Backbone:
């Protein structure tokens, strides 16, 4: 049995005529008759009753028709999937990441994509989190690693990489270093160091605490360095604070309850290139 035979069978059933089916499938009437006859011999049953110049499905034909249509649909889906993979080889992929990003799995994903699809033109750039989400929505970027608070950016597909509490970090020996929790009043008189507005960590902090940030730094490492140098109390996420345990102590802040998120975001109905990149990111971040 061949797909062409199923196509001819479905065409005859749809048109009610071997002649009209031949015209619809751009073949000759003797060829389509021979192909359907071959299908009948293979299946051991008649599929059509010949009634003058027209034909009608037999009971066996009626039973086989939906399965023949499903087989043709599955073959078309396979063809489209194969075509989509071929598009990845010659497509483009614009990736964005938060300023100062040093997250190794993202770079691992980038490298793995380049190895798997060397024909794709790939770009990588940095920006602030709100701008990254907007650029993905506009189509300027295909996919981006961005921060948010509580929930991923609206209107986009998202893969949440990290969801964690916001903490205040101070050097060992600071008056707040022994605290398991820090209340808003404990921050009075302290200089607060945070990321720019719109960053996920900053948004989570601002949503839960009315104390303003006094010093803004462009990257988490800069916040940590300033806190370590005695400039003030840094506002970071738990995992980033954990990277500096040798010199800094981190404590949760009462009232700051929304988690800081780090998400990979892309538009709905992603291109084959984006789908391939996301699949590699899932593996690189250990989320599979």
Residues:
């Amino acid at each position: 049995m061949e797909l062409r035979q199923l196509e001819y069978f479905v065409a005859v059933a749809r048109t009610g005529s071997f002649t009209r089916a031949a015209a619809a499938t751009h073949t000759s009437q003797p060829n389509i008759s021979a192909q359907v006859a071959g299908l009948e011999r293979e299946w051991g049953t008649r599929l059509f009753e010949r009634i003058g110049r027209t034909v009608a499905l037999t009971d066996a034909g009626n039973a086989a028709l939906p399965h023949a249509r499903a087989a043709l649909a599955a073959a078309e889906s396979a063809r489209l999937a194969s075509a989509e993979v071929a598009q990845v080889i010659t497509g483009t992929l614009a990736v964005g990441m938060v300023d100062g990003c040093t997250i190794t799995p993202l770079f691992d994903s980038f490298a793995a994509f380049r190895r798997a699809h060397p024909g794709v033109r790939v770009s990588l750039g940095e920006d602030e989190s709100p701008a990254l989400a907007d650029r993905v929505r506009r189509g300027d970027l295909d996919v981006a690693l961005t921060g948010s608070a509580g929930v991923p950016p609206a209107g986009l597909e998202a893969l949440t990489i990290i969801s964690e509490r916001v903490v205040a970090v101070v050097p060992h020996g600071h008056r707040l270093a022994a605290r398991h929790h820090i209340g808003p009043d404990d921050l009075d008189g302290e200089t607060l160091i945070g990321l720019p507005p719109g960053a996920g960590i900053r948004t989570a902090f601002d949503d839960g605490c009315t104390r303003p940030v006094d010093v803004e730094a462009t990257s988490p490492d800069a916040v940590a360095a300033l806190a370590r140098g005695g400039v003030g109390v840094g506002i970071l996420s738990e995992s980033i604070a954990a990277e500096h345990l040798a010199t800094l102590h981190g404590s949760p802040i009462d009232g700051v309850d929304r988690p800081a998120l780090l998400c990979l975001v892309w538009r709905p109905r992603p291109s084959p290139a984006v789908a391939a990149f996301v699949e590699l990111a899932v593996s690189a971040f250990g989320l599979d």
Remarks:
- The chain has a mean pLDDT of 90.
- DSSP finds ten helices and twelve strands in the chain.
- Residues 59-90 form the longest helix (32 residues).
